[in-house]
Each structure stands twice: as structure tokens, then as C-alpha cells.
Design a protein that fits this description.
By secondary structure, the protein is α/β, with parallel strands linked by helices. It has 25 helices and 19 strands.
């Protein structure tokens, strides 16, 4: 059995030397630049101290310090090009954000949750940097989610350079641009770090990973967090990866290593990783007390390796500045920060009525009439096509229309080894939905991903930051859960948390559902309410080929992230076929479709239950004289309550039929809304028909019992008619 051996004191101290580097190697920097570096470092430390003071005075609400990381970040900033390169920072990158062009005011406005906070308009904690002018993408709190997005941003440049229709420089793509992604050593334990490293090295992407190792993930020491206590040692076998380790408290050594790492990437040699050993003189955050798990001796060592003090010592020893002048600079910066804080505290918080702002695009509304051409299809012929056919046709149309659109996921390409297509037909997805698209539009626009769902969505988010339009596929709904962190905490929050300055309008296509005979637990799941319950997402669920074509086109052309659920059982049915409606056929979101008129009961259905509801309604009419009105929701978020209300006010009775489990399903929400707003029109209870509250079993007899059938819908209709 392997035994975990903690780093001893001498080994820890060797990584950070209390003396400044003798081999300065800073001939490229002028005295003015070196003093500027010190000013940036001291400004960052002063801001940390000011925010802590504001928090103690109850004038701020949270504080996260970047102290101990100033030298490596200041050094790195000299090798970056704001508004040219792209940056995925983390919450300790205060000095780096300043070095890239943020101001003390920008950071203090975030601390006091001001409406004018340029990072998030008061929606995020402080130290969550964001600036579209500088290409600092919106930072979030989850650890490690930035890695895959940074990979996607770097990959976007690679893809764009291969698409002749894209004017690269006009779109902000450059041959020598790089992407910087930062984290602490704790985040490298996240699986997404390893997924990002895999793709970055596989594609030789121009991305610099800056891992700032202060030896603690809150209270967990590095030897517990990382096998062997060193992330750089673990990465030695990755191809094309330049790895450099440095004393991140020493500006001189940090400068040299950052120059090497960024140059390597700009030359398109592959990714690089800097393992910078830093300190953490302050606790993890203002809600943590590191004295409860760190010894006095260790904290003294931290003080001896303080990067700000070491930079002061370096400037004095190099005869660039004497102590008196340094103290004058310190006093000037301290006074300036105090003055800025006084002004910032005058700024109001966001108005309460803006709480719902920035959830969705405020410029492009997919529920509007500009997305409604449903009544004007441009049929080319009379052929009846399946849902697979018309989804494929829409994807092809939109790829032709938008050169920025790319498609990727597991098995979606015809063949990753393109030469084999001379001998074989190609895959094109496990359900053949993307068949032929790689052959038509090329391997740079349609390609396979690793078998890693978070990898797919995280990369897509980063690509969307750069202006590409990813339409990705998660092969089965049952396996979407590794990507749920990226979907819920990153994709859905992006516009909101950045105050409307960043967005990721990607489309995630997901085959879902049962009725397959033999699908079992892991090929039959639905669970759409987990996404409708996520603010910021659009959730679409077509029941027929024509609707799938028009709704997918709307999803691709809108500016919001869309979960596009495609029922596997409906892919090749005869009853839901449709004619190709043309290249501009669109159906707006939030527009249900009345597919059967009736006077006695309203049946609200979606997905596979639409057909079963129609069958049940036909039987109810023929055998029992009960006339049902059937409404196909088509989209679940937004939900067409106007159409629901119109029907319920006519029939006065309502049944909701959906495939997912009965308890806490979409029917519960619809029933609650009907009870809230339509109660005076009801002549009976709101009834639901859905799956049993269990998993879909493999045995066909069990599956038939668990999933709602036509007979179940009919029974619901007849029991409701008795009221």
C-alpha cells in the first residue's frame, strides 16, 4: 500500500527563498517598469487590507485575499497583451487583474456590491474579475471550472484559423495570441483540470496554465491534496507540455519563467504550465482562521517570504529606490486607496427591480415574432422526413449560414481518421443525426470529443466567449451529469454574473427518454426539470420532425444557452414525420401548439406523451363521447401559460401528461401555476399522468408499467370527466 509522505519543513522552505534572486535577468525592464511592478504589488496588498477593514466595518460583505501571490502575478502581467490575449483568472488574481488594466476602483466597487461594479453589477462576490474590454472573462467561485473554458477559448483560435470564411483579425483571432488560465494548487485535484490538460496537449493549444501553489486548499495541505505534494511532477508525461517551476514570491525568477512559458505558447509549440510556489499570509477568506490549523513557526516563515517585502529589498539592493522613496510611494498608494474607498462607498447597490435583469439576452428575444415563420414554410417537395432527417437538415443549413458554427461531441463526426471515409460510410452520431456533416463542412467544424461530458460543455463555453457558435451533443441524457457543473454554475450564470457583459449562447443537443424496449436505467432518463429549474437556460422539447427543425433553428440563432431535448423514441417514427420547411423556418420559444380541439378537458403534453395523449383523446371521443383539447408545449422554459390559460378557461378541466416521474415533475409546476392563476375556471382537480417514482427498468413488462401509456392517459381523462 502506498504511504503518503508529507513534505518536510526544509523541502517546503527550499521552494521559496527568503533572499532575492541574484541572477536578476531583468535587462529588458527599465527602472520605471520595475518600480511600476512594485506599485502594482503594493496596490494589491493595500486593497486586500482595505477590503478587510471595510468588512470589519460592515461596509463590505466578503473578502478574499490575494496576498502572497503578488510577485508571480506582477511578473506575468509584463508578458501579456490585454485585449489581445484571453484570460481566465481565479479569485486570488488581484495583482494580475491590476496588471492587465483593472483599477482599484473597479475592485472596490465589487467589494461594496455597487450597481456600477464593472465586474458583475453587484451580482458576485468581490475578487471575481471580469472585463470584456481587457478579455478578462467572468470569474466564478467553483474551483477548476475555468480550465476547460480556457481550453475552449484557445481552441477557438485554432478552429477559426482553419475556417476560410472567418476574417480572423476582424473577429479578434491572432496568430500569436495566447490564453492564460490561473488557479491554486487545490483546484488541480478537480477532474476538469486533467480533462483540460488532456485536450490542451492533444491539440497543442497556446494556453499557459499558471498554478499558484500556496500549499493550502483552505486547510488541506498540498501533500494531502496532491500525490507526492507536487503537481508539476505529476504532469511530466504529458506530450507537448512545457513545465517550469519557480519561486513565485521572487519577482526576478518569476519574470524569467513567465517569459519562457508565454514565448513557448506564442510560437505554437504547445501548452505550458508554471508551478509557482507562493505564500498565503492571510487566511483563505475573511470567514476562515488559519491559526486553527497552521503553527506560529509556519506563519513566521510566510512573513519571511512575503513577496512585497522581497520586492522592496530587491529595489533597494539594485539601487533603483531607497527606503525613503519607497515609503513615500506606499503612503501615496495608501492615501489614494482610502480616497477611492470613500468615493466608492457613496455608490448605491443595484435597484431591487433589477434582480431579474441579465438572465437572458436583452437584444435577441427568441419568443418574439422575428422568430415566427411557422405559418410560412417553404416546402421544396412532398417527401415526408423523420425527425433525424429534419434535425440534420437544420444543422446543415445553419452551418452553411454561419461559418462560426461548429459541432462536436462523442461520435458525432463521420470519422476522426478522415482517410477511412474513402472506404467506409462514416458514423455521424450513434443515432446518425450528424451523419454527413463532417464530410460536407470539414473536420475543423465537425469533430469528435474525448469521452468526457464536462469537457464538451466547458470547451463550448470558452469557444462561445470568442464568438464561435458551438452546437454540441451529449450522447445520452443519462450521462449529462458530469457536465452539470458547467451547465448550471457556468453556462446558465454567465450573462447574469457578468452584469450582461459576457454570454455563452451554445446549444446542447441531448437524446433522452424511454419507450425503447431494453433501454434500462441508463438509456431512458428524462429529468428535464433539473434544467427548467436552472435560471438562464432555455429548455426545448419537440415532439415531431417539423417542430424539431423550426425550434432547433431558433435555438441556434438566438443568443441564449439552450438545452435541446430530442426524444430517441421519436427519432424515426412514421406518425411524426414532416416535410422539409425551408432554410428560414423558425418556431418561437414559448409558443405551444394546439393539436386537437375539444370542449370537455384540456390535456397538456410534451415529448412522447403528445402522441399518447392524442391516442387517448381519440378513444375518449369515440367510446365515451368526451372531447379533449390537446396542447403540445414544445418548450418548457419558457412555458406558454397564455395558451394553457386560453384552453383551461374553455374546458374548465385539465390533465397534464409527461414522461418523467410524477413527483416533482414538470406537471407539478404547471399544476401549481394553474391553481394560482386559473382556479376560478376549474371544475375539478388538476390531474397528472407520469412515470412511477422509480427508474426505468430493462425488462419490457416493467418498463411498460413504469412509463405512462395511452391507457394511463385515458384513465386520467375518464376519472377527471366524472367531476
Amino acid at each position: 500500500m502506498a504511504i503518503q509522505i508529507p513534505l518536510d519543513k526544509d523541502e517546503r522552505m527550499e521552494k521559496r527563498r527568503t533572499n532575492t534572486s541574484k541572477d536578476l535577468g531583468l535587462s529588458k525592464l527599465s527602472p520605471t517598469q520595475l518600480i511600476h511592478a512594485y506599485r502594482t504589488m503594493f496596490t494589491a496588498r493595500c486593497l486586500d487590507d482595505k477590503e478587510l477593514k471595510l468588512k470589519r466595518q460592515n461596509k463590505s460583505f466578503f473578502q478574499m485575499s490575494g496576498a502572497g501571490h503578488e510577485a508571480i502575478q506582477a511578473a506575468m502581467s509584463f508578458h501579456l497583451r490585454p485585449s489581445y490575449d484571453w484570460f481566465y483568472l481565479y479569485y486570488r488574481d488581484r495583482t494580475l487583474a491590476l496588471g492587465l488594466g483593472q483599477t482599484p476602483s473597479d475592485q472596490l466597487l465589487a467589494a461594496v456590491a455597487a450597481d456600477t461594479d464593472p465586474n458583475s453589477a453587484g451580482r458576485q462576490m468581490p475578487s471575481h474579475w471580469s472585463d470584456p474590454k481587457l478579455n478578462i472573462t467572468s470569474t466564478s467561485s467553483p474551483t477548476g471550472t475555468q480550465f476547460l473554458q480556457a481550453v475552449g477559448a484557445a481552441e477557438a483560435s485554432l478552429r477559426a484559423n482553419s475556417i476560410s470564411e472567418i476574417n480572423n483579425e476582424e473577429k479578434g483571432f491572432y496568430d500569436d495570441e495566447i490564453v492564460l488560465v490561473c488557479s491554486g494548487e487545490g483546484s488541480t485535484s478537480e477532474g476538469e483540470f486533467w480533462e483540460s490538460m488532456n485536450t490542451a496537449c492533444n491539440l497543442k493549444l497556446p494556453i499557459v496554465f499558471l498554478v499558484q501553489d500556496n500549499e493550502y486548499a483552505i486547510s488541506v495541505p498540498v501533500e494531502v491534496n496532491t500525490a507526492g505534494g507536487s503537481i508539476s511532477r505529476l504532469l511530466g508525461s504529458f506530450p507537448n507540455l512545457l513545465i517550469r517551476e519557480c519561486d513565485g514570491t521572487d519577482f526576478s525568477e518569476s519574470y524569467r519563467v513567465c517569459e519562457e512559458a508565454t514565448s513557448y505558447c506564442r510560437k505554437r509549440n504547445g501548452p505550458s504550465l508554471i508551478h509557482a510556489h507562493t505564500t498565503r499570509p492571510y487566511s483563505h477568506s475573511d470567514s476562515d482562521d488559519q491559526k486553527t490549523y497552521r503553527t506560529d513557526e509556519e506563519l513566521v516563515e510566510e512573513t519571511n517570504n512575503d513577496p512585497v517585502l522581497k520586492m522592496r529589498k530587491f529595489l533597494v539592493q539594485s539601487n533603483l529606490m531607497d527606503l525613503e522613496k519607497l515609503e513615500a510611494i506606499d503612503l501615496e498608494i495608501t492615501n489614494t486607496i482610502d480616497e477611492i474607498a470613500d468615493e466608492v462607498l457613496k455608490q448605491p447597490q443595484p435597484l431591487p427591480e433589477t434582480a431579474m435583469r441579465h438572465l437572458y439576452s436583452e437584444d435577441v428575444d427568441p419568443t418574439s415574432s422575428i422568430f415566427d415563420s411557422e405559418n410560412f414554410p417553404a416546402y421544396g417537395d412532398d417527401r415526408e422526413l423523420t425527425m433525424v432527417d429534419l434535425i440534420n437538415a437544420c444543422l446543415s443549413d445553419e452551418m452553411e449560414r454561419q461559418p462560426e458554427m461548429i459541432i462536436f461531441g462523442q461520435d458525432v463526426a463521420d470519422a476522426s481518421r478522415e482517410e477511412t471515409l474513402e472506404e467506409v460510410d462514416g458514423k455521424g452520431g450513434v443515432f446518425k443525426v450528424t451523419f454527413g456533416l463532417q464530410s460536407k463542412y470539414g473536420k475543423d467544424r465537425v469533430f469528435n470529443s474525448p469521452l468526457a461530458e464536462a469537457n464538451i460543455v466547458g470547451r463550448a463555453i470558452g469557444m462561445a466567449h470568442r464568438g464561435l457558435k458551438p452546437v454540441v451533443e451529449i450522447q445520452f441524457f443519462d450521462y449529462i451529469w458530469p457536465a452539470f457543473m458547467q451547465i448550471r454554475n457556468e453556462l446558465a450564470t454567465m450573462r447574469y454574473r457578468s452584469g450582461g457583459t459576457f454570454s455563452s449562447p451554445i446549444v446542447i443537443r441531448v437524446p433522452y427518454g424511454g419507450y425503447l424496449r431494453g433501454g434500462g436505467i441508463y438509456h431512458s432518463q428524462t429529468g428535464e426539470t433539473l434544467f427548467t429549474h436552472t435560471p438562464g437556460l432555455r429548455v426545448v422539447l419537440p415532439s415531431n420532425a417539423t417542430d424539431a427543425n423550426g425550434l432547433l433553428r431558433t435555438a441556434i440563432r438566438c443568443e441564449d444557452p439552450v438545452i435541446f431535448l430530442e426524444h430517441k423514441h421519436l427519432y424515426r417514427q412514421v406518425h411524426n414525420k414532416g416535410r422539409y420547411p425551408g432554410k428560414n423556418f423558425m418556431i418561437p420559444f414559448g409558443k405551444a401548439r394546439l393539436i386537437r380541439k375539444g370542449s370537455d378537458i384540456t390535456v397538456i403534453a410534451c415529448g412522447a406523451l403528445v402522441r399518447k395523449s392524442l391516442e387517448a383523446a381519440a378513444i375518449a371521443s369515440k367510446q365515451y363521447g368526451v372531447e379533449c383539447e390537446v396542447l403540445d408545449l414544445r418548450t418548457l422554459s419558457p412555458l406558454d401559460m397564455d395558451s394553457i390559460a386560453s384552453s383551461v378557461q374553455k374546458t374548465h378541466k385539465v390533465l397534464i401528461a409527461h414522461e418523467d416521474s410524477l413527483s416533482w415533475g414538470i406537471g407539478s409546476e404547471i399544476a401549481a401555476r394553474i391553481a394560482d392563476s386559473l382556479f376560478p375556471w376549474l371544475d375539478g382537480p388538476v390531474r397528472r399522468v407520469a412515470s412511477l417514482d422509480t427508474w426505468v427498468a430493462y425488462a419490457p413488462d416493467l418498463e411498460n408499467e413504469i412509463l405512462p401509456q395511452t391507457s394511463d392517459v385515458l384513465e386520467g381523462i375518464l376519472s377527471l370527466q366524472q367531476f
